[in-house]
Amino acid sequence: MNEKSKQQIEEYKKIIEKHLDEYLEIKYPEKIWESMRYSVLAGGKRIRPVLTLEACKAAGGNIENAIPAACAIEMLHSQSLIHDDLPCMDNDDYRRGKLTNHKVFGESTAVLAGDALLSFAPQIILQKTPKTVQPAALIRVLEEFVYNAGAERLIGGQVVDIDSEGKQISKETLDYIHKNKTGALFKLSLRTGAILGGADEKIINALTEYAEKIGLAFQISDDILDETASLETLGKTPGKDKEAGKVTYLSFYGMEESKKRLDYICSEACDILLKNNINSDILIGIAKKINERVN
Ligand code: GRG
User: Fold this and answer.
1) pLDDT digits (tens, 9 = 90+) for 75-121
2) Atom 7 in ligand 1: residue holding the nearest Cα
3) pTM of the full predicted structure?
4) Residue 132 Cα, ligand 1 centroid: separation in angstroms?
């Protein structure tokens, strides 16, 4: 990735942090807003909202139109992490290098903070997206949001993941988990940016294909990192998959083959962009970065 693109990503991140901070201003009852802020503003990589802003730009749109939706997607992602960390799910003590939400605020507040983020996110899309955006585009973005957050996608993936713990699942089941638990939000991020950027269907489809590739790549690298990284670099407890008896990409393909597949899938993602004349050094750079991920 060239220097200009690196700076652009930092600029996107600043915009996202600033708007998340503004949107999540503390209201009454303070406890729930503090809990929501604690997790959302805990400093994740912000890859999903960066993808949304860049997809909007790559489609020739104005990123101002996509800022509220990009932040809403990060809220949805943070919500899924808060709930995933609960004792009834993955039961984790650390996330984003800090104690998990329920460890600080208690379980009932953590459940409610997740719920509150899930309904606050579409509220932000509706209230804060510039009024110049066509209502049809806004409705499409909202439909993408609720669909990808729901039982057919993100929640479906999580349910099958939990049900699969300690079982010898098939490759198809693992694919379903990856596609939905991780892939859904990557697809949502890119499609949302493309729609708000005014992309035609060909470009929306190409960015969807790219999203499928990097979503899978991200999950493979997550599985690799779960075995190789430390709590310090990862920001969450490593080795959780093995401990929970989870079948991962590595269970089927082993470390070396998984790395090869990761490399290949990332290059396929770049090819999709090139073939469709999507000129984005940032999207190419992100696919390459996922291949070299350390956290
Ligand atoms: C109620 C809508 C709703 C959802 C709940 C709990 C749940 C369903 C889903 C959990 C999904 C989950 C935890 C997927 C893991 C995806 C993943 C690879 C997360 C890590 O993402 P990073 O590395 O994290 O981008 P940061 O902290 O950098 O943002």
Assistant:
1) 999 999 999 999 999 999 999 999 999 999 999 999 999 999 999 99
2) 80
3) 0.95
4) 32
